[in-house]
From TrEMBL:
Annotated family: Belongs to the class-I aminoacyl-tRNA synthetase family. TyrS type 2 subfamily.
Source organism: Roseateles aquatilis
Listed GO MF terms: ATP binding; RNA binding; tyrosine-tRNA ligase activity
Protein name: Tyrosine--tRNA ligase
An annotated GO cellular component: cytosol
Gene assigned in the entry: tyrS
Amino acid sequence: MSENRTQPPAPPEFPITDRVQHAMAQSLRGCEELLPKDEWLKKLARSEATGQPLRIKLGLDPTAPDIHVGHTVVLNKMRQLQDLGHQVIFLIGDFTSMIGDPSGRNATRPPLTPEQIKHNAETYYKQASLVLDPSRTEIRYNSEWSDPLGARGLIQLAAKYTVARMMERDDFTKRYAAGTPISVHEFLYPLMQGYDSVALKSDLELGGTDQKFNLLMGRHLQAEYGQEPQCILTMPLLEGLDGVEKMSKSKNNYVGITEPANGMFAKILSISDVQMWKWFDLLSFKSIDEIAVLKREVEGGRNPKEVKVMLAKEITARFHSAQAAEDAEADFNNRAKGGIPDDIPELTLSGAPMGIAALLKAANLVPSNGEGNRMIEQAGVKIDGTTISDKGLKVEAGTMVLQVGKRKFARVTLT
């Protein structure tokens, strides 16, 4: 890399056409922050005038992934920009994974072994390919340029940023104030992530809101190396099915991209009518204009459930198939009419007669007897289609279909 610190000459002005305005609107769709907007508009105008695609980077460290649709929000933004004709770069941080990023944490994230990195990188790429167009995606690994950098290059890189600036990072500030140890190698992480932008000559880098400091580091280092600084675009965290907390497996409010199509469809259909529009903005491949039409139709009296079904089918089809989405809708409608799905688990249990709450727990339909009793109180438990209201019920031997809520079923033979 050149050590030239001179600023590049000011780029010529290019016209802001309707296509450029459209590209800007797509860039801003659902995003949390785009910095600096005026620079990005100029980059889009230059690209439109010259026919030269912009280089758009997303870096992901292949840590053990919690794969759910919330993680695909930033991938969706990449796809939107890809569809505008720009070059997207899916950067796998195999080198930075060996450092461990403390972003948003109050302790160091443990580094991974090379074997873990390789396995998780394959998982990430498989996930990304369900959203991005693989034929138009550049896959890179940051070990390509980070390993050859060596000790000398790393020291030279570290000289381009001050400790005072590094301590402005929120999690470092809090840990220092609390007396929590900060290892020197943790300062290297944002430096190495920023250096990725130099190596790739990135025009735009995407990330979550918790990555803002690292994304800005890329801008700083590109200027240090005499490049035009990248713009940065952060995406919000997607709230889960409850519409309150961010989507998380630990909060059980998530839609996993590998879960069965029927469950995925039903979960998406359970979100609120208000929340639906944010999911459209962040997860749908429909255009801004198409979504605006749907909003007007709902405001004009169209049943919002019809629109939500469209969203559920689109997302289910993306991670399964169009036919699976159709089948999931049919399965949901069957359940809504009181029908029993075809694919419910079957098991044999002993201990008749057995208390109803204990039976529900043994059938893995509730996590505890207390939760079973709570569901009975809420009229959420059925045996062969009949709602159970007696928490003291002793269930005799036989084969029956147990149902908890709208989506949990089991065919149980009790002996």
